[in-house]
Amino acid sequence: MARIVMKFGGTSVADLDRIHNVARHVKREVDAGHEVAVVVSAMAGKTNELVNWVQQMPKVAGANASFYDAREYDTIVASGEQVSSGLLAIALQSMGVDARSWQGWQIPIKTDNAHAAARIVDIDGSELIRRFGMGQVAVVAGFQGVGPDNRVATLGRGGSDTSAVAIAAAVNADRCDIYTDVDGVYTTDPRVEPKARRMKKIAFEEMLEMASLGAKVLQVRSVELAMVHKVRTFVRSSFDDPDAPGMGDLLNPPGTLICDEEEIVEQEVVTGIAYAKDEAQISLRRLADRPGVSAAIFGPLADAHINVDMIVQNISEDGSRTDMTFTVPSGDADKALAVLEGQKQVVGYDVVQSESGLAKVSVIGIGMRSHAGVAATAFKALAEKSINIKAITTSEIKISILIDGAYAELAVRTLHSVYGLDKT
Amino acid sequence: MARIVMKFGGTSVADLDRIHNVARHVKREVDAGHEVAVVVSAMAGKTNELVNWVQQMPKVAGANASFYDAREYDTIVASGEQVSSGLLAIALQSMGVDARSWQGWQIPIKTDNAHAAARIVDIDGSELIRRFGMGQVAVVAGFQGVGPDNRVATLGRGGSDTSAVAIAAAVNADRCDIYTDVDGVYTTDPRVEPKARRMKKIAFEEMLEMASLGAKVLQVRSVELAMVHKVRTFVRSSFDDPDAPGMGDLLNPPGTLICDEEEIVEQEVVTGIAYAKDEAQISLRRLADRPGVSAAIFGPLADAHINVDMIVQNISEDGSRTDMTFTVPSGDADKALAVLEGQKQVVGYDVVQSESGLAKVSVIGIGMRSHAGVAATAFKALAEKSINIKAITTSEIKISILIDGAYAELAVRTLHSVYGLDKT
């Protein structure tokens, strides 16, 4: 007997047939004797409809701009999960499974007061656990809680993943299964490299790098939360036949386990290759090399909501002038250049150079902490394909390389192969 | 300065433009210095969509019949008012009016545990009143409260009227305005008698008879509640221009006031003519005239969910046998006859006679309590038009007459005229 939290996203509960399919997945675990809590998103499309109404209402009411009260936004948008949680409870009951829906305010899932982007502060899991003992499945509305003002608070887009992990931590679950429209986490994007393999396990830290680098499987915050509370999190497909062989396997179901690195016995040096296209590079030449220069550059860019990614600054030769390079999404390049133009007097650079249409390719692996030569292998492999490296940044478990966008797929395949990721 | 509760139904909040129109009505009262609570239904069509999902879900999940948990029904269906209350709060804020939405569990509106048909047990109006003092408008999700199990409970269809009256009682409002798609209560159906007049005032008791007789303006329970708590309730149109002259008149706005009879100084003898078509009459001849016979007839009919309306039993000539006549909706006549056939041994009647296609016409007026000859006037007027009366029942403030359905409109117009209702 285990305690399992299962999470299903919007496409998995898009209509009544799919909700029935979700109920079959749940029934399988219940029939196996497990204690189960299910976390659901709103039916696909509903959240967008509700958000659109909230955004349009001020204009329809004659306001000049679309400012709205985030507390009302939360009240309105959270209704989507209220509906899907109730429908799943009915589906389970119809299949003979004792179940009830729980809204955030009923458990309660307490959040802070940052409406529309709230963070979970505390979850009282005692009533859920008491009902597990009675054989009752908890169907929890994801994405929401209740703030200190006793009003509904939502966690922001993708927040249902976070709800699921937080509930798993609160009820001390053995596993948190995130059912999604992919069947696990791959060594790289299978559309780029058909030889990409689904990983059996990946460490939390690696998953954080994979997720924030564009492997859009899990919300980053949910992975952070899982890492802090050591929640064993499983990514698997909601479109698999719920009753196919092995689906109910407690230790090795199909999918990818995200877990503490200590649980990964045979640690690979490199576990995955991530990439992001449509990057632009901006270089400032011959900056004054003094305290405050970085702040003068990146503060105004952040104020303009420009998401800066790689930052490379080299040590200046004579201690007076240096070069700074960073990347932004290509679509923000012109805006970034305009911001920099306005900061020219403060920053005191000589020349700005920029180039769009670049790609960032990243090699990720906890094992590289203790292995030398990982970076050199990448550089050599790319050189053999005549791929020019424009910039490099590294962290303990990641090497990111900026290249011409036209070579992105070739670079991904080359690196995937050179680290042996295409071999089982 | 007055304290006003305003209620808007589903057609009044059907889309963002109409919600804006509702907000204009509210702003008018706020600008006049009044304290305002608004009660809203779900956007038209939403409740039906949600109810349909609830009813379909068990079948989709493979259940033989459509049984569902009423607590989940309530959770799902109440989401409709959650959305409309939030949107109206945003519309008001966009127009510079301080407002916030309130769900039933937040106020709280406490109900009993009869999910899907709950009754309000208690409303704590103190927080709403405190915020009135701060100039804040309360936008309350109608149709819902929270049960002793801390779960959402709905009041059943039309329950938003009841929510509004109950909140008006809880905050001791001066008036409860029910905005609807008609502009008041008429002396009879204007589609039958174009000379029908909108009443300025009608007593609670009269409105109860009008409403339950088919003048479908207000939910019967809300009128009962208004009568008990002496809530002055105003029926008016939500489609009038919110800023037309007289709309904000505190004492005489356009519409019909439903109030205590003591407030109606010049009491008319007859205030309205109601009618119901498609009635069927069923007569049992030569029943045993002994205790328990009525129960043996009407108990099984109630168990079969057949709504019996008029019941006429005459005193038997010799104390041993009597006749009993009652009406049911025409569509239920065959079912009723089958039930009676099954009860024949118990009831011990001789013959059953039935006739469909009848109409019931009712004359209503509190003044008839103290006026003789009201019934005689009706009988004489109908006789002059050669309309045959099949059955008669009377209460203190109502005379109901069963006639051939073909004469329904003629009878309504004749009675409307003979009591002078077409004269201002």
UniProtKB/TrEMBL annotation, chains A, B:
It catalyses: L-aspartate + ATP = 4-phospho-L-aspartate + ADP. Its EC number is 2.7.2.4. CDD domains: AAK_AKii-LysC-BS (cd04261), ACT_AK-LysC-DapG-like_2 (cd04923), ACT_AKii-LysC-BS-like_1 (cd04913). Residues 282-354, 363-424 form the ACT domain. GO terms for cellular component: cytosol. GO terms for biological process: homoserine biosynthetic process; lysine biosynthetic process via diaminopimelate; threonine biosynthetic process. InterPro entries: AceGlu_kinase-like_sf, ACT-like_dom_sf, ACT_Aspartokinase, ACT_dom, AKii-LysC-BS, Asp/Glu/Uridylate_kinase, Asp_kin_monofn, Asp_kinase. Pfam families: AA_kinase (PF00696), ACT (PF01842), ACT_9 (PF22468). Pathway: Amino-acid biosynthesis; L-methionine biosynthesis via de novo pathway; L-homoserine from L-aspartate: step 1/3; Amino-acid biosynthesis; L-lysine biosynthesis via DAP pathway; (S)-tetrahydrodipicolinate from L-aspartate: step 1/4; Amino-acid biosynthesis; L-threonine biosynthesis; L-threonine from L-aspartate: step 1/5. Substrate binds at residues 47, 81. It comes from the Bacteria. ATP binds at residues 7-10, 180-181, 186, 191, 216-217. SUPFAM superfamilies: ACT-like (SSF55021), Carbamate kinase-like (SSF53633). It is an enzyme of class 2 (transferase). One of its GO terms (molecular function) is aspartate kinase activity. Keywords: Amino-acid biosynthesis, ATP-binding, Kinase, Lysine biosynthesis, Nucleotide-binding, Transferase. Belongs to the aspartokinase family. This is Aspartokinase.
